[in-house]
Structures are given as C-alpha cells and as structure tokens.
Amino acid sequence: MATPITSATEGVAATSWDGVTIPERVRNRTSVALAIGGPLGAHIPRRPGCYLRTSRDRQGDAKSIGLQLDDAEARRTGLGWASFSEVYRENDTSAFKKKRTVRADGSADWVVVRPEFRRMLGDLLSGRIDGVVFYDTDRLARRPRDLEDLIDVIEYTKRPAVGVTGDLNLISDADRHMARMLCVMALKSSQDTSRRVARNHLADAAAGELTGRTPYAWNPNGTLRPDRARVARRIYESFSEGTSITGIARELNRDGIPSPRGGKWSQPTVKAILTNPRYCGFVSYEGKHRTENHRQRDGWGRVLISQEGLPVVGKWDPVIPRKQWADTQLELDRRRALSAEKGILTNREGVNHRKYLFTGYLRCGVCKAAMSAKRVAQRGHVIYYCPGRTRNACGKVSRRAEPVDQHLEKLVAEWVRGRTCPDPGDGASAPEDPQDTQSRISAISTRKHRLITAWATGDGSATDLCPDDYYHMLSAMNAELDLLEQRAAEHAVATEASRRRDHAAEWRDGGFEQRRALIGEIFTAIHVMPSGKGRAPFDPAHICPTYVN
User: What is the pTM of this model?
Assistant: First the structure.
C-alpha cells in the first residue's frame, strides 16, 4: 500500500493515494455513524418547525394551542435550535376519527384528515424545515399509519423530531419503537372512549332521548321551533300532493326560506327531512352499534327497533303523525320503483347520481383524477372537465362531451359485435329460481300492500289492529322482504357467469342502468389526454380506454 502524499491541485487541498486524488472535504466527512444518537441526534436545525394539536376546543379561543406553543418554545431554546420557521396548528382536530375519501382512480379509503400534519410532512421532506418539535406523542398521532408516515420521512431526511413532554427523538431507533408503543396505547384509549360514548348514545336513544345532531325543527333542549316545524310540515304535505323532491327544494328557494345550514335547499336536504323518523316521534339511530350498514332506501332503515320488534318512541313533540310519515316512506318506494322502470339511475345505497353514461369512468390524462360533466349555458352543450384543486386535481383537461360519447359508443359497438349471441336452438335455458323465492316475495308484497291500504282507509280488516300491532307486522314484512331480495340477488350474481348473453341487445335495448353496467364490464378507465392550446378538432387518439381483461 502506498504512503499517502499530501498535495495541492489548483489551490484545493487534496491527498494523493495510490494515484487517486481524494479531496480534503471528503477525508474530513464522517459518512457512517455507528451510534445513531451521535452525529445524527446532535444535528441542530436552523429552520425547525413546530406541530401543535388539540382534539376539541370547546371555548373556541385556542388557549390550549397557545400553552403548547409556549412549552414548545422553551423546549426549542433548551435544545439550542434556531427560531421556528413554521408553526403547524391544528386546533379542534381529531387524530382518531376517520373519514371516507375517494382517490383519483375512484377507489375509497378511510383516513384521518389532518391537513397541517400532511403539510408538515411535505415541508420536512422538501427541506423547508429541518427538524420538528411536537408537544407529545398523543398530540402527534393516534393512528399508527400517521406515525409511520412521519417516521418514513425522518428516516429519509435524517432530521430530528423531538417531544416537549419527554426525551423522545424519533431519529433514534429506540425512541421510534417507544413512540410506536405509545401510539398504540393512545389508540386503545381513543377506542375505549369511543366505545363508552357510543354505548351511552345507544342507551339514550333506547330511552327515547334526542341524541346526535339537533334536527331542523327542534331546539337543542328538545322543544319545537314553530317556524321550522311549519316548513317541515309543508315539505311532507307537498310531497304527499305529488310534488317531486327537486320541486319542493325549488319552491322553498323561490320563497326565500333558508335551509338548515342557512343556504339554498337541495334535493338531498329535502330527502333527509322526508326520511328522518324523528319528525313523527320515532327514534333514529345510526351509531356504532348497528349490526348492518344503513341503506338509504327509506326512513325505516334508520328507525331504532325495540326487543319487541316495535319502533322506539321518543320523548320529544312530533311534527307530523306517524301514519303520514309511514305513507311518505311508501310513496318514496313507489317513486323509486317507477324511476327504475323508466331506466333512471336513482341515488340509493350511497351511489353518486349519474346523468351521463360515461361519467365515473372518464379520467384526466394528466393527473388521473375522475372527470366531471356539466352543461355550459353560453355554448349550449355539455363538457367533460378535470375538476381542479377542489378535488386535488389539475384542472388542465376538458373536452366537449358529444364527440367523446360518439367515439366511445362506437368502441362499445365494436366490443359487443365480438361477443357471440345465444343460439335459440341450442336447447340452453336459464337456470330456474331457487325454490319459490320470487313467489314468496310477490305474496309478501301483496300482503304488505293490503295491510297498508286497509290501515290507511280504515277498512274493517284493520279495525282490530292497534298501532303497535300494525307497525310490528309492517316491520316483520320488511325484514322478510329484505332477506328474500338478498337471496334472489345472490342467486342472480352466482348464475350470471353461466348465462350466455346477447350483449348487442343489452346495449341496443337496455335502459340507462343496464348500459352503464355493460360499460363497467368493458372499460376499467377511459383517459382523456390534453389536446393542446386552442380549440383543436376532436382527435380519437386523445381518448385512451383501458379495457377489462
């Protein structure tokens, strides 16, 4: 091995070793640290950030956040760090409650929404800040997913994150493991509290107390608001007279009546009142202890049923009679069935209302976000467009809908022509329905209709029924119908794969729902690429569908 010889090249100190010139700045650098608490832990940030959070601010004065900032400043001074270059405040923000969000590709996820926490991670990753002071691990994260996101950034940037209430520095392996354990303990504490609160809500609901958000027509103490009660009665009366839900919203806006939140009335707002069982005195419960997901077909799915199979009655003053509310749910079912027969896609089971065949499948070719559709009154036509920042999209792509639809319909026609139509002479036949499910559904539906008609008209067959018996029989019929319909649906899904279908006939003669279902079998996504500046002519090459394998 040659002996290193120190030399200078062009005025820069260097060392020559076996013919290799090694700059002095490289020789003086320590690239490996066996003790993580050594060089890395001793890093003194010059642009530190501070993260503060409170779960609930009852007074609205952010006093707790201010106290946390005072303690964080003292901790920063004790560490010898520079002044905070950014303070991330999340006041009155939960680190435990999750919300359903929709990704750009249309799939769903359940995450804790904390914008400032995410901004802090981005700033630490980009180098805008080079260290973090947080108040405590339970203020920092109560979900392991959030903590791991921060740890990933710290491991990549090699920058410290220290707590005020302890000696944790997440740049250390041991401290990271301790933070993980503390986070799991905090999560357990939050889940225990959530369970106790949910149990108390269920007990209050079973006792007939007014729980949850105060409905439109009542004060928080359960007393009626006469002005709003009149509006609610008007909504039910207009609906029973045949006015559509959209028409009711239009009339209320025309008369200048503010909505529950003080804005304009909309179809979902009116429907929420029509389906809320509290307006007739029934207890509504949609809490954690429900055993099945609530389906927004009518208000009966929200009614809390007692052990005897009867609706639980609340202690507040009702706005409308129970019979009027029950008749409203029946009318909602009738209109929904009528809309389905006409091929109109209704807003049920939480599905977005669709007006156009290809919405939901169209994606922005730049950011991959789902594209929306709207009618441009000035131009007199419909466009597909990337929604922009309101939905975390770019907003750079838009296209007139008519030529896009025509091109996609040609692609669908080509696809269905490639499918073999069933041969009526091959002796194949559709599988029979299991047992007599359909006949039982028909029989129960007839009995249900006769019962409701007899109760509504005061027919002799219903004179011996008390209200509790009537609602008990109706609830039992609804439960049996739900079970039979579920069985029929499962059988239909199981046998669909074995059937030979005439796809061309489905596309040619099918209604709106059937055609959209067929589109879902053909495409997984349809990307609309940008066409450049100006109003360029339509180019089919800019429409890039992805077919189902």
Answer: 0.48
